[in-house]
Design goal:
Blueprint (H helix, E strand, L loop, with lengths): L8 H10 L19 H5 L28 H10 L16
């Protein structure tokens, strides 16, 4: 037990809690040290211009929508609700 060796229960608890690995703890094993050197750190990616279709870009002026959604994703919402066919599927009143 914890008290048998002169350790208090709070010290025992502190040690057991600190040994639990959490998401915020970093486990470093040192294998990547050989891969990163000064030359690698100074390398920069090329500043290429990549052509992106306008429908795949986020909306430049989002009103009440998510600014991260592309125009294509916003248009897809309308088709998900079938609002593009709302005038074709008008329910008729049944007489009883």
């Amino acid at each position: 037990m914890a008290g048998d060796r002169g350790t208090t229960s709070s010290e025992f608890l502190d040690r057991s809690v600190s040994s639990i690995r959490m998401d915020s703890n970093v486990a470093r094993n040192g294998r990547l040290i050989d891969l990163v050197d000064t030359e690698w750190r100074q390398e920069k990616l090329p500043n290429d211009s990549i052509a992106v279709p306008a429908a795949d870009l986020p909306d430049a002026e989002p009103d009440n929508s998510n600014p991260q959604e592309t125009l294509r994703e916003q248009e897809q919402k309308w088709t998900d609700l079938a609002l593009n066919r709302i005038d074709k599927n008008v329910p008729r009143a049944h007489s009883s």
